[in-house]
Amino acid sequence: MSEKYKFVDGEGIYHVTLTIVHWIDLFTRKEYVFDVLESLRFCQANKGLKIHAWVIMPSHLHMIVSSRDVPLSDIMRDFKKYTNKKIIESIQSTNESRKKWLLNAFSKAALPLKRINGFKVWMDGNHPILLDNNFMMEQRVNYIHNNPVEAGMVMESYHYTFSSAVDYAGQKGLLGIDFIE
């Protein structure tokens, strides 16, 4: 098995990407975004997750993260497991026009896997990339914050609500962040 995309440095800072199965545009509804934000806040408060930069795009989430207490691999596993369940509950209880289609897609994604019973929202893995120098960190922060601009969603990165770009522009965003120094 490849060591290329694993958490190898317990004290390192990583760029991670978590993607919805089939690249489904799930995060076009704020309810599901808030499920993710709630879980990230929990991980920050209870698991020692440090979030240095983040953006939630329609089908994926980018973050620059580190941890002071719990291994990042454990945090990411628990985060995905919890949000998988929470998002399914939200789909089932929300007036979701794509409810049947979404549940069917997430159910089919889980079928070939013995370890998953019911629904699979997230693709396997989180593609961790160790950021071991300032150039890489700055490059990834810019990449994350410019994602909505490149997608044509906003003209300026700090105008995108579901991102830490607003924090880096001197305002207060939706998640507390630990600035990279």
Automatic annotation (TrEMBL):
SUPFAM superfamilies: Transposase IS200-like. Signal peptide: none annotated. Pfam families: Y1_Tnp. Residues 9-147 form the Transposase IS200-like domain. Coiled coil: none annotated. Gene3D superfamilies: Transposase IS200-like (3.30.70.1290). InterPro entries: RAYT_transposase, Transposase_17, Transposase_17_sf. NCBIfam families: REP_Tyr_transpos (NF047646). This is Transposase.
